[in-house]
Amino acid sequence: MNKRILVADDEEVLRMLISDTLEDEGYIIKEAENGKAAWEILQLETLDLVILDYMMPGLNGIEVAEKINQGCKNRPPIIMLTAKTQESDVEMSKNAGIQYFMGKPFSPIELIQLVEEILT
């Protein structure tokens, strides 16, 4: 499989759960504990998918998505995985170029299904 995914979430336990779940499916995972770290990884590495939390310190998920769409050579698809699920949050995500949106709490099985749908 060898698809590379960046998981950016400031909640360590949740980040580890997402990473472990996807690694069990054969994906290669990079982790970022905040938006700034995510952007630094994105500038250095080619990734197949990015999973962003909305509310992170430094750069939030929307700001990272805007940077990806403005300044990345490789523009991987983005999943916004967040507790901010109001209509305005979804609209803001779409305006930032985020193609996929999943609310927290989420089902790991549904996340795997979405990731597989995007990457196959």
Explain how this protein is built.
This protein has 120 residues and is an alpha/beta fold. It has one domain (4-119): Rossmann fold. The protein is built from 5 helices and 5 strands. Strand 3 (49-52), helix 3 (61-71) and strand 4 (78-82) form a beta-alpha-beta unit. The longest helix is centred in the N-terminal third of the chain and has 13 residues, at 12-24. The radius of gyration is 13 Å and the shape is globular.
Mean pLDDT metric = 93
Largest sheet: 5 strands, parallel
Radius of gyration using CA atoms only: 13 Å
Number of strands: 5
Distance between the termini: 10 Å
- In terms of DSSP E residues, the strand content is 15-25%
| Helicity range | 40-55%
What name is given to the CATH topology? Rossmann fold
Report strand order across the widest sheet: 2-1-3-4-5
Number of helices: 5
pLDDT below 50 for ≥5 consecutive residues: which ranges? none
> How many discrete domains?
1
CATH H level: which superfamily? Answer: Response regulator
Helix-strand string: EHEHEHEHEH
Tell me the name of the CATH class.
Alpha Beta
Overall 3D shape: globular
- The CATH architecture would be 3-Layer(aba) Sandwich
**Category by helix and strand content:** alpha/beta
Question: Could you write a compact summary of the structure shown?
Answer:
This protein has helices at residues 12-24, 35-44, 61-71, 87-95, 108-119; strands at 4-8, 28-32, 49-52, 78-82, 100-103. The protein is an alpha/beta fold and 120 residues long.
